[in-house]
Input
Amino acid sequence: MAPPLAAVSLTSPLFSPSSSRPLRRRHAPPPSVSFQTRGRSPAAAPAESSGSPLLEVRGLTASVKETGQQILAGVDLTIREGEIHAIMGKNGSGKSTLTKVLVGHPHYEVTGGTILFKGQDLVDMEPEDRSLAGLFMSFQAPIEIPGVSNFDFLLMAVNARREKSGLPALGPLEFYSVVSPKVDALKMDPKFLDRNVNEGFSGGERKRNEILQLSVIGADLALLDEIDSGLDVDALEDVANAVNGLLTPQNSVMMITHYQRLLDLIKPSYVHIMENGKIIKTGDSSIATQINEGGFKSIALV
Ligand SMILES: Nc1ncnc2c1ncn2[C@@H]1O[C@H](COP(=O)(O)OP(=O)(O)OP(=O)(O)O)[C@@H](O)[C@H]1O
Ligand SMILES: [Mg+2]
Output
């Protein structure tokens, strides 16, 4: 079934002028990030982090709109410019819900707390406006958009952003020269541009396509939900290279993953652990190593 337009708009990677800035590899994880413990604000920025806050989430609670079931139970998270944050946690701990609430997914209702994005209150903003403000989400299970070609979808998204910035719309030919090198960089067959968005795409192809959207449209903050799931080893490397190539000192990534292998390719500044709708621990990539070796039980009591 075709998704409602509002849902479609959620997939629009927001592009931002920053996407055309020169690219530079992000800083390595700060060595002295201390572990956060339950009950403390997990996202207090360490002294060495100098970027401005992009996303500030405080005491965020959210429920499923239809049933009122609470999923997020008080999330605190700060993401500054130039940082890469990884979110890990058991199945059902609320990771995807957090990203969906951040982009304004219509299935969820914010019941408490605040979300600031570049100082703007996100909670009452429409999903489209969040997207235009520079927030991008790649879905754990990317949706199909029947009847809309990948090329047209990307062109529409790029031109919406250009319009907002007062720039003239790009024509198809002009846009092709923009999108083509990105398709090549992701080692995608250019034929994917003519296919309807995600229709008939394999799981791995959908993931690659999400990153194509991100690389064409750009974002100040990209929320990547399990971009590594379903990718073969080579595809994972291509996708990670593409994400790394988009990083600038001004933009940031929040990536959800279950696996350390992604964090070996895209080095996080911070790793957060979610449990029961909250971030219960924050630290550096050594947390991921610990989980990899001993499971979540190995960190639960630390
Ligand atoms: N729309 C919804 N309706 C009912 N329950 C929901 C809804 N959205 C989320 N949930 C429930 O909230 C909990 C958190 O779901 P979420 O998808 O955020 O988990 P997750 O941490 O991303 O898990 P995974 O690692 O398996 O992807 C789950 O128990 C899920 O069933
Ligand atoms: Mg999930």
Notes: The chain has one domain: 53-298.
